[in-house]
Design a protein that fits this description.
The chain has seven helices and twelve strands. The protein is α/β, with parallel strands linked by helices and 270 residues long. It has two domains: 178 residues, Alpha-Beta Complex (Spore Coat Polysaccharide Biosynthesis Protein SpsA, Chain A), CATH 3.90.550.10; 79 residues, no CATH class.
């Protein structure tokens, strides 16, 4: 991909994973044109390693490392430190780079006055498919200059890179990251509850206090924001379920914070 980047900059990607046999193949294949792909595995017991090794044999520029789990931010910082490219893209193991976005990345990385790009992310909904094109996608900061980016180690969940410099949203029509997390009710709810516990722990460590009003209104507001404002009502019952899990997450994060305050201890570590 280097020859397409106007500044002569190199473009790399990094992925952290564990037991990701269902999604790691398409994820890495979508990055096949990159100058380097760094993969950090934290102890897979399934076929993740054999899938990655097969892709290496096919010629993908993958460097595979094993590292004990450091938490989301710590693991991504470890992976970023292993990269050598000028610009880095982070994908989760259940995400795929759409062809239009892959084509747009060299152009984005050629902008001398930008240091990070916020990209659109479109969710795959169980029982529906990719979210309706008129539903509002999520936005995530995932493309950035390597030397100007770090992860905050105190962000034990919802980790995001901190970019020193100018960050902009990618222009409309630049393509999307496609997110293939399991959004069936049980797995999606369980993942939301785990993240809610981590968020509550982080807020507790920051000295934040739980609020009865927030416990009452935050879940409702979360549901409305997803279902109405992000137009997930266009996705049928799958949209209702997705918004409902968002409300569960909001309620649980406040409930766990009440528990940690009462017990006087933080949540279990990530």
């Amino acid at each position: 991909m280097n020859e397409d980047v106007g500044t002569g900059a190199t473009l790399g990607a990094f992925v952290i994973c564990k037991d990701a046999e269902a999604t790691i193949g398409p994820c890495l294949e979508s990055l096949s044109a990159f100058d380097e792909i760094v993969v950090v595995d934290s102890g897979s017991k399934d076929r993740t390693f054999s899938i990655i090794e097969a892709l290496v044999a096919q010629g993908l520029p993958i460097r595979l490392y094993e590292e004990n789990w450091r938490g989301f931010a710590g693991q991504k910082q470890f992976a970023l430190n292993l990269c050598t490219a000028d610009w880095c893209l982070n994908l989760d193991a259940d995400e795929v780079l759409s062809p239009p976005l892959a084509a747009a990345l060299p152009h984005l990385a050629s902008k001398p006055d930008v240091d990070g790009w916020v990209l659109q992310r479109r969710d795959h909904l169980a029982g529906f498919g990719l979210a309706h094109r008129w539903s509002r996608p999520g936005r995530v900061l995932r493309l950035f200059r390597r030397r100007q980016t770090v992860y905050d180690p105190d962000r034990i969940v919802h980790e995001a890179p901190i970019v020193s410099g100018t960050v902009r949203r990618a222009p409309a029509g630049s393509g999307e990251i496609l997110h293939f997390a399991d959004t069936q009710w049980g797995p999606h709810r369980d993942r939301a509850l785990r993240n809610a516990s981590l968020k509550a722990r982080m807020r507790h460590m920051e000295g934040r206090r739980a609020s009865v009003l927030r416990l009452i209104f935050y879940p409702l507001g979360r549901f409305v924001r997803i279902y109405v404002m992000r137009r997930f009502f266009l996705n049928g019952f799958a949209g209702v379920r997705y918004a409902a899990v968002g409300a569960v997450y909001a309620a649980a994060s406040e409930y766990y914070l009440f528990r940690f305050q009462r017990e006087g201890r933080p949540a279990p570590r990530a």
